[in-house]
Amino acid sequence: MSTGKTRTKKKMVENNNYKLSDFLPTTKKECELRGWDTLDVILFSGDAYVDHPSFGAAVIGRTLEASGYRVAIVPQPDWHGDFRDFKKLGRPRLFFGIAPGCMDSMVNKYTANRRLRSEDAYSPDGRHDCRPEYPTIVYTRILKQLYPDVPVALGGIEASLRRLTHYDYWQDKLMKCILCDSGADIIIYGMGEKVTLRLCQELDKGRSIDTIHDIPQTVFLVDKNDIPGGINENDIILHSHETCLRNKRAQAENFRHIEEESNKMHAQRLLQEVDGKYAVVNPPFPPMTTEELDASFDYPYTRLPHPKYKNKRIPAYEMIKHSVNIHRGCFGGCAFCTISAHQGKFISCRSKESILREVRKIVKMPDFKGYLSDLGGPSANMYGMHGNNLKACERCKRPSCINPEICPNLNTDHSKLLEIYHAVDAIPGIKKSFIGSGVRYDLLLHKSKDEHSNHVAQQYTRELITRHVSGRLKVAPEHTSDRVLALMRKPSFRLFNEFKSIFDRINREEGLNQQIIPYFISSHPGCHAEDMAELAIITKQLDFHLEQVQDFTPTPMTVSTETWYTGYDPYTLEPVYSAKTPRDKLAQRMFFFWYKPEERMNIERELKRIGRSDLIHKLYNGVRYSADNSRSSKNAYPGKKAGYPKKKEYKRKK
Ligand code: SF4
User: Fold this and answer.
1) d(Cα 636, Cα 617) in Å, to the nearest integer?
2) Would you say the CB of residue 512 lies under 6 angstroms from ligand 1?
3) What is the set of domains in the chain, with CATH numbers?
4) Which of 55, 265, 415, 457 is the most buried (most CB within 10 A)?
């Protein structure tokens, strides 16, 4: 029987009326509210504190709290002046943790052209001044200055993807393992729940951080003589940082190993000499089980920004607050994506019950109007998928299960995913669940030997298009050139065409008027201006006026980045061209916008420069453009009156 007190508490929760003490503490006063006079762990976060399972600091804090540790979060501490934010909670009993943010700080701050982004999506009101560049380095140096004897552990995407020598686009140079520049003691790479808890337990036993070298999924620096067990034949010894500085091919060779070992079930240890020491990368933990993942999502998150942000907008939170993440990992292996080096290719799934529990919580949010914005993950449709023969997967080194072709061992059955969709849609209060994560249409078009899988894929496709699209389905062919697509590890553009035909047919059959919105990237390694010209012609033929486009950004530790920097494909060591200068990059990007009158003269000039004047005719259908903006031929736009569309028509088309 519930008491009056529990009824009141339940009511408060239902109304999102949480108490301050329902959040992890961020100040001394909030620690006192919990009756805590000491702390075991203090996390310094580069993002605002949003108590939600999509925000790393909250996940790690809640994980440790559930095991009885006293944890506080200091979000976005002021790194200027007297460092009072770093002193206000004193020293923790076990360690300081750095959670630099959901994104690498430089990717979060700058565009591909190194221009400041319009806002910082993880800061209140999108402000740019709430965190420094490289918070991992800045926060650690301050902490080591104030508390030299307290261990500092690095987590999050920034440290994870800078765990070995890597190219930094913003400084345009190779950088060392981030332990060297920060002075921290250990890196926890990948998804950090199990690792951080284990670190707590080992320190709690009284072990010194200098001796904790046996935890999987960690990186530490040691002298050669102190490498645990010595260098053995199962270790992979990478080219040293010094060698990579001199030899780009060595850096490319290194990356192949880094990626392969991040995606193996039984990985080898990686060693890299740097600054007279060795960075040791212990192999990762096995992928989380469903029970472990459920536990991580089921902690008592309030799902809200901390009350200190009252009346402030945190853009990333606004995007995800009505969405649910149903799995981790991605076996796509896209060359420009960081997931393979962070989460790996094996899929860990939440149980249906755990997903439904989260959806019911969202339904109770006062601002929820019945529409889930996403029911997905790193990709929309990999839930429940794995190799049929797990023994083969245990020996597998492939970074992708679906590129260059879909592995015959991969079970591509969408049944479990459909079951989730049906169960979510049956919850009272859900009007519609949208799929906002990227759909792998190659998985939907795949002809498996298993007829049941093929049938379910067709059913999934129809249900996706008729019930889960909010008018526009975003998909990512990324390019039209199969040569560039092979370097991106994306499927042939032929498959996009096939999928678009199915999309259009189902829309016609169902009387729907929905659009497919394709994403494309320019200046990816291997892409020449000519490839972009062909992209323009093909997308023109498909009647797309592109919106979702981006210039390739070399983010830390991806195959594409290392190819872009070194000039070699890390797997074949063949030379690969990349557009690097701002001029060459802009020359590629403008082809997306062939339909804008202001781009036409530059496009024609570029096509002449690269000796492809023949494409001018294809792109503009015989219309010549002259510097005074006059036109010399009719029929620039088939099906319309001769000449350019009027300005209004552009707007409508867009
Ligand atoms: S064997 Fe096939 S399904 Fe298994 S991990 Fe390798 S590529 Fe993926």
Assistant:
1) 10
2) no
3) 20-228 (3.40.50.280)
4) 55
